[in-house]
UniProtKB/TrEMBL annotation:
<keyword id="KW-0963">Cytoplasm</keyword>
<comment type="similarity">
    <text>Belongs to the pyrroline-5-carboxylate reductase family.</text>
</comment>
<dbReference type="Pfam" id="PF03807">
    <property type="entry name" value="F420_oxidored"/>
</dbReference>
<protein>
    <recommendedName>
        <fullName>Pyrroline-5-carboxylate reductase</fullName>
        <ecNumber>1.5.1.2</ecNumber>
    </recommendedName>
</protein>
<keyword id="KW-0028">Amino-acid biosynthesis</keyword>
<feature type="domain" description="Pyrroline-5-carboxylate reductase dimerisation">
    <location>
        <begin position="160"/>
        <end position="264"/>
    </location>
</feature>
<keyword id="KW-0560">Oxidoreductase</keyword>
<comment type="pathway">
    <text>Amino-acid biosynthesis; L-proline biosynthesis; L-proline from L-glutamate 5-semialdehyde: step 1/1.</text>
</comment>
<dbReference type="GO" id="GO:0005737">
    <property type="term" value="C:cytoplasm"/>
</dbReference>
<dbReference type="Pfam" id="PF14748">
    <property type="entry name" value="P5CR_dimer"/>
</dbReference>
<feature type="domain" description="Pyrroline-5-carboxylate reductase catalytic N-terminal">
    <location>
        <begin position="2"/>
        <end position="97"/>
    </location>
</feature>
<comment type="function">
    <text>Catalyzes the reduction of 1-pyrroline-5-carboxylate (PCA) to L-proline.</text>
</comment>
<dbReference type="GO" id="GO:0055129">
    <property type="term" value="P:L-proline biosynthetic process"/>
</dbReference>
<dbReference type="GO" id="GO:0004735">
    <property type="term" value="F:pyrroline-5-carboxylate reductase activity"/>
</dbReference>
<dbReference type="InterPro" id="IPR029036">
    <property type="entry name" value="P5CR_dimer"/>
</dbReference>
<dbReference type="InterPro" id="IPR053790">
    <property type="entry name" value="P5CR-like_CS"/>
</dbReference>
<keyword id="KW-0521">NADP</keyword>
């Protein structure tokens, strides 16, 4: 397989490195298109793939073209791409908020997949929701699904509009998690711990709790009850959370993220 990546920021390079790690592409068949001369030079030093600074007819020789530029920068590459894309190429967009139909019309190209990854993809532990134009075959979908799974796990959505919910839940999700971790660390500091010790306690607690969610044959409510003995310390904390409307606030925030994603998708 030959893959071209347009835009080599954190997410673009997360995909590139994952493809190489799992032998899905050879370095000589991985084209990295980066407009920043300094960034391009750094990429050449890293020897991750073939690095160029402009889009040329050469792009038309690749099986999959990944669009990982910022949405506001799409206008800077769309004309050049429209000139070189070939009908059989699959375009995979990880640009937030730009619908498949817009990409199809802008690039005059039918085979478009739209995906929403999250930042843990940089460690190969991401989750990506993706949707596809009806013109793609099952074989083409499977090919892209295999690529995405190199960065973690994937979920295919027949209804593209659900990508707005994916954006709000898992795309933005890491930030919510960090927000909670930060609040817990701050509480630890208020109780007298040095920040490093509070951070260690919280991070390991989060890690262990994640594995319990994954491996224990219990619901989340059961897991909470297993920690919160009646009249104990955990129950005291949970009572404060409920009184302050913490769960409702989190849900309201996530729904606000979804609304904003819908607004961005409509332009």
């Amino acid at each position: 397989m030959k893959i071209a990546i347009v835009g080599c920021g954190n997410m673009g390079m997360a995909f590139a490195k994952s493809f190489l790690q799992y032998d899905l592409v050879k370095k000589e068949n991985l084209l990295l298109i980066e407009k920043s001369a300094n960034r391009a030079e750094n990429l050449r030093t890293e020897n991750t793939g073939v690095v160029v600074e402009t889009i040329s007819a050469h792009v038309g020789e690749y099986d999959v073209v990944i669009l990982s530029v910022k949405p506001q920068d799409f206008g800077m590459v769309q004309d050049a791409l429209r000139e070189v894309l070939q009908p059989q190429q699959v375009v995979l967009s990880i640009m937030a908020g730009i619908p498949i139909s817009t990409i199809q019309e802008t690039l005059n190209h039918r085979l478009v997949i739209r995906a929403m990854p999250n930042t843990p993809a940089m460690l190969g532990m991401g989750i990506t929701g993706f949707s596809a134009a009806k013109e793609l075959s099952f074989a083409q979908l499977l090919k892209v699904d295999n690529l995405i799974n190199a960065t973690g796990r994937s979920v295919f959505l027949e209804d593209e509009s659900m990508l707005d919910a994916v954006t709000a839940l898992s795309g933005s999700g890491p930030a919510y998690f960090y927000y909670l971790v930060k609040a817990m660390v701050e509480a630890g500091k208020q109780m007298g711990f040095e920040e490093s010790m509070a951070t260690l306690l919280v991070k390991q607690t989060m890690l262990g709790s994640f594995h319990l969610i994954n491996n224990a044959d219990k619901s989340l409510d059961d897991l909470i009850k297993a920690v919160a003995s009646k009249g104990g310390t955990t129950e005291a904390a949970l009572r404060e959370f409920e009184g302050g409307g913490l769960a409702q606030t989190l849900q309201t925030g996530i729904l606000a993220a979804e609304r904003r994603a819908k607004e961005l998708s409509k332009g």
